[in-house]
Design a protein that fits this description.
CATH topology of the largest domain in chain A: Immunoglobulin-like
CATH class of chain B: Mainly Alpha
CATH superfamily of the largest domain in chain A: Cupredoxins -  blue copper proteins
Strand content of chain B: under 5%
Radius of gyration of chain A: 26 Å
Distance between the termini of chain B: 74 Å
Structural class of chain A: alpha+beta
CATH architecture of the largest domain in chain A: Sandwich
Number of strands of chain B: 2
CATH class of the largest domain in chain A: Mainly Beta
Chains: A alpha+beta (about 270), B mainly alpha (about 250), C mainly alpha (about 575)
Distance between the termini of chain A: 78 Å
Largest interface: A-C, 104 and 116 residues
Shape of chain A: elongated
CATH topology of chain B: Four Helix Bundle (Hemerythrin (Met), subunit A)
Shape of chain B: elongated
Order of helices and strands of chain A: HHHEEHEEEEEEEEH
Strand order of the largest sheet of chain B: 1-2
Number of domains of chain A: 2
Oligomer: heterotrimer
Largest sheet of chain B: 2 strands, antiparallel
CATH superfamily of chain B: Cytochrome c oxidase, subunit III, four-helix bundle
Number of helices of chain A: 5
Strand content of chain A: 15-25%
Amino acid sequence: MGLALLVIIWLITFFSTYFFVAQTWWLPHGAAKAAAFIDGQFALTYVLMGIVFVAAQGALGWLVWKYRAEASNGPVEYSHGNTKLELIWTTLTAILFIGLNLMGSHVWASERFEPAGPGSVPVEVTGMQFAWYFRYPGADGKFGRTEPKLMDPSAGNEAALGVDTTDPASKDDVVTGTMYLPVNRQVDLTLRAVDVIHSFFVPSFRFKQDAVPGLAIHMHFTPTEIGDYEIACAELCGLGHYKMHGMVHVVSQEDFDKWLAAREAEKQ
Amino acid sequence: MATFSPTIRVPQTGQDGGGTNPPVRGGGGDGGRGDGYPDYGQRLRRVRLGLAIGLTSVTMIFVSLTSAYIVRRGLPTYDDRTGTYTQDWIPVQLPLALLLINTVLLAASSVTAELARRQITRQAALAPVTSIPGVSLGRESGVPWLAVTVVLGMGFLTGQWLAWRELADRGFYLATSASSSFVYLLTATHGMHLLGGVLVLLYAATVSLLNRPVEGRRIVVDVTAWYWHFMFVLWIGIFALMWFVR
Amino acid sequence: MVAQDAHAHAGPQGFIRKYVFSLDHKVIGIQYYFLALAAVFVGMFLSLLMRIHMIWPTAILPIVGEIKPETYLQLLTMHGTIMVFFVLTTAPQSGFGNYFLPIQIGAPDMAFPVLNMLSFWTTFVAFIVMLAAFFAVGGAPLHGWTGYAPLSALTNSGPGEQLGADLWITSIAIFCIASLMGALNFITTVLDLRAKGMTMMRMPLTCWAWLITAILGLLAFGVLLSAGILLLLDRNLGTSFYVPLVVVNGQVMGHKGGSPLLWQHLFWFFGHPEVYIAILPGMGVASQLLSTFARKPIFGYKAMVYAIMAIGILGFVVWGHHMFMSGMSPYSAFAFSIMTMAIGVPSAIKTFNWLGTLYKAKIRFQTPMLYAIGFVSLFVSGGLSGPFLAQPVLDIPLHDTAFVVGHFHLIMGVAAIFGMFAGTYYWFPKMFGRMMNESLGRIHFVITLIGTYCIFMPMHYLGMAGQPRRYSQFTELAYLQHLMPLNRFITYAAIITIAAQLIFVINLFWSMFKGPKASDNPWEATTLEWTTATPPPHDNFGGHTPVVYHGPYEYSVPGAPKDYVMQTDPAGVTTH
């Protein structure tokens, strides 16, 4: 049975590790500025944890085979432990875990401790059961008032958000069901939710943030590649959670301006 | 029956603390009298220990409600209209005089609970003596402190009910504001726990009529009295929170 | 509520007193165990339906019929809730703990037998109320076992969110009260009922695990109770603890100013210690069994005790790692993240010590040991995906994906369950006087180990690829389509593994009646339960009070006549 255990444990370890190393199923291609940092930290973590994984499982498998009762090893080592060894491996583990964490923390800080920079594209993303809406503030750069009592999803995009048309700032607001962004410009995102918690998740941008009712959460990211990227809702929000998806189109600055102008024109 | 050589020693590495001699602990159920008489002293200590542990969990309930209160009080609410966060905590107009009266009632009941506890402790201590045929200690001073505590406790609960009526008259219902929700919730939770204490005291008071051994009843009264004191201290904490952090 | 006397007496007669409202911790332990067994079958059945629906969303199943998206979410919610509360918090602690804690410390029963009986029946009522949610108008709630508000706080946020959700919350509240009663009993018992010579540092590691688990429960369940009460008030009496101004389907609801994050903080303040409640007893059992079957003292007993304590304490300051993406302050996230990495350290110590116990040992491979070894492997696997999630930057792509599902299932859904299997095979002889079948045990182990790895390891790959969790189907997102073969593989593995659990059930019940008779100490173990008759008499030790002379893991002591010295063996005591 010792041999069987060794074989089973080592095979499980081999196959688990193989699919990580081969990257058979992997993070999608990163298309935002943060992706490089995040993927780098991910790689570091998975290499270190991978080494620990192989070592620990390998040791387990080897030990249960080597010290099976049928084998003729020496007498059992009657020992209650080894304090020096305990201190050594405790310290090493602490350094490894906490060090790893501190290394990743500067990325977190740059993502989340700082607000969006000047010249960023403001977009408001609102989640509701079961769709995403995107609002652009237009030329005045200000989002108009919204009023819960005015919300009416059946009457078009602006009405879905309850945009108060009497507010002058909302005259140039554009609300769409798909998101367009200009490439290589930081996005100043405001996340809102109307009913329950949703989560705006764009795997390719390595971006995720819960949209919480009662809060307007500011985040930023910078798409770096032109393309179409899917949005998935990443917080259980009801029966339509699985189909609450959207699309981000990252285009050149010109195409973005043209698109936005076309939307403004439609409003007239 | 040991055929074990007395020169074998189990090494003292790590585990067995202070040598191989077992520490002296009361093993077995009797209080050293050796005649099978139940060890009420041990039982009392055990039930008190259980109460202390149980009160930790009650404390956690009130700690969580208190922290929710404090956080909610400071939490601004996003106002769609202005696009800004505003404070929306409305202090409740507490019926202070009524609550102060209730506090005095509860304090008094704590005093009488303690007197009841000491009264029955004396009775329990003297029980072995009074069980000797022909021995009597004469009439005890006879103030039924237990019953007085129950009355004062019910008085407090009635007063809390009146305080709720007063709050409603002032326009503060459960769902009126976050602050009023917390006030009702905190006082209701405390009140329910106190009512539980009242019911146990009633049980202790009535069961004495059934001629149960006084040492057993003493344990019930003792532990309930400590519970009662805790409920009083808890009330002070809740009252202070609602008033000074309104 | 008063402790029993410790002299021998036959105990109550009569079926109701003996088997239904028994005050005997052994009967109560078995009652809890069978409650958990019933619950795990309900939970497994729900997960089977879930896995089938995920790969065949339009299939119409026999008996159950069509599974709509909301039904999937209801299955998911009840699966998680039933498994976490009625299996993982029940069997390892209230089941085995109730049965064996008093015996292992040399006590005749728990400190408060009546309270013990009440805590079981309260748990039972909680289970019935939970099951009732399935039959409520609208069905069971669909808000996940984590019950995030406002989804769980609004009665019109989805099917099942009316009476079903109220029953769910009520059941959990009842469960909280039952758990608090049990925790009180466990802690008092350990502190006050240990036999002569049973110092704290001579207690088996199972007892330490049950003690720390009880302390965690004592401090955590009250917070869940508060959270649940606030939720009931929001749902039914119009308060706004958790619900801000929201509009559901165009209808402005009457709430204002509440904070959804408040629910998350309260829930996870309970929720994180809860997962340690689920795993610590399994760690205790693993330590116990590894030492016993390796014929070697546990490596670093003191370190193991301190590690359990450290895990318990740190477990209270890491709850925010469930909330990195929630809108919580990023500074708090950083603090929680450091503490979370810190809690990996005592867990690692325990793993090193388990490996150290096997080093230069003499390992016997009876079924309990197989599960203990499996536990270590699974704990390593499940534990090492933790440092990914503990780093907020890496949590960004991984939060709410299948990666998290793989992580917590390997730890809670497999390692902890292996702890339960290990305990079952190990203690079965003492409880029922018969041995379980070794061959069936071996087959069950191999299929379950390989099967559960096949189910849950691939979920890490799915999560990295961005597959969100709690999706009833993956038909709507193009980037998920290439993951369907892997999802199918997982479902097939699940079907086989769930089917294989029948082997365990057959072994369990067959052996109870027809298994070969067991001796009093079939594993040649040292702890107190193996000194007493099989099954133990009503007061556990047949009238005499045990006296303890040694620590719990004195195996292969040089010069001793056998390769184990029982804790109560007076021989070998030097007089000084």
